[in-house]
Amino acid sequence: MPENKNLLITGCAGFIGFHVAKRFLKDDYNIVGLDNLNDYYDVKLKKDRLAILQDYDAFVFIEASLEDRDALERVFQEHSFGRVLHLAAQAGVRYSLENPHVYVDSNLVGFLNILEGCRHSGVVHLVFASSSSVYGANTRKPFSVHHNVDHPVSLYAATKKANELMAHTYSSLYGLPVTGLRFFTVYGPWGRPDMALFKFTAAILKGEPIEVYNYGKMKRDFTYVDDVVEGVARLVERIPQPDPGWSGDEPDPGTSYAPYRIYNIGNNKPVELLYFIEVLEKALGKKAEKKLLPLQKGDVVETYADVDDLMRDVGFRPDTPVEEGIKRFVDWYRNYYEI
After folding, report:
1. How far is CA 1 from CA 172, 261, 320, in A?
2. What DSSP string describes 261-317?
3. What is the pLDDT along the chain (339 residues), one digit of tens a residue?
4. Angle at the Cα of 232 (from 53 to 105), degrees rounded to 5?
């Protein structure tokens, strides 16, 4: 266990941030949670997550935006953090086609403010959320952190790749230990309403058609949120070290001569979207009316995580089957919306 158990979690009212914060509170961390509670999706859902966290004495909430430099500086000045878990970002591939400037403000300017706060306040480990979206046009499967990822197909993906580059720069210049986590299609209770499972569930229960892109022939490495939480919890306490075998002649993107590491956190078992919908129909006891559509701009056909590094370094690989994860989500959804 780390000596300084003060942890900053950004995006604490978000889907993953909420679940991760609950886990660390149970592990006796003192948490400062930061979120701007924006209206990208239902603010009530965010506030209901937050209310659960605020039941803990060891949780302090600060409402602020990442791009508010003065507010971020105050957060770091007023609290002594051993570790920072940066999960806040403007999410969503499709939204980035309509509102590109929001991604630059939150994901680039905001991340710089986090890096500067960590640099100047002696943080011993920054862990940040990247995304499987960075693999972009890559087709070699499974996706490995040791593969080059220089061909993003959405602005969202480009900002996440930029975060990895910015983090490496600070790790190299200032010796800041940094770990980046590429999450693969996370789902589960308290999920995001803009994601497929949530949208499909809402539409099917209302008897409305669901939009199924690429005619349902997409494959996703759907990863249950509890598995993500477990991976994050193990990696936060594993401070990266420089890789003595790293060579500039054959640079490995997943490691470095600096204290910097990248990990995939994915289920390692791609599932076709049509099967995913079939499992959801069984859980709901209701058939979906499908509106089959072509692949949308910015989307990729398949994601598939190589998690060998995660298994080797922290002895864990996600393994919750979609049949179990979807059932848990549907149970939560019915309870939350009193259906």
Report:
1. 26, 20, 27
2. EEEEE--S--EEHHHHHHHHHHHHTS---EEE-PPPTT--SB--B--HHHHHHHS--
3. 456 899 999 999 999 999 999 999 999 999 999 999 999 999 999 999 999 999 999 999 999 999 999 999 999 999 999 999 999 999 887 788 888 999 999 999 999 999 999 999 999 999 999 999 999 999 999 999 999 999 999 999 999 999 999 999 999 999 999 999 999 999 999 999 999 999 999 999 999 999 999 999 999 999 999 999 999 999 999 999 999 999 999 999 999 999 999 999 999 999 999 999 999 999 999 999 999 999 888 788 899 999 999 999 999 999 999 999 999 999 999 999 998
4. 75
Examine the residue annotation and report whether 333 is marked as an active-site residue of this protein.
no
Q: What is the DSSP string of 99-156?
A: -HHHHIIIIIIHHHHHHHHHHHHT-SEEEEEEEGGGGTT--SSSB-TTS-----SSHH
Contact 217/209 with Cβ under 8 angstroms? no
> Treating both helix axes as pointing N-terminal to C-terminal, what angle do 43-53 and 15-26 enclose, rounded to 10 degrees?
0
| CA within 13 Å, CB half, 325 | 25
User: Please, what sign has the CA dihedral across residues 24, 28, 32, 38?
Assistant: positive
User: What gap in Å lies between CA 314 and CA 235, rounded to an integer?
Assistant: 7
Phi, psi of 271 (to 5 degrees): -125, 135
Active-site hit among 95, 103, 156, 224: 156
Distance between CA atoms of residues 307 and 322, nearest Å: 18
Q: What is the DSSP letter of 302?
A: B
Residue carrying structure tokens 């009530």? 44
Residue type, position 181, single letter: L
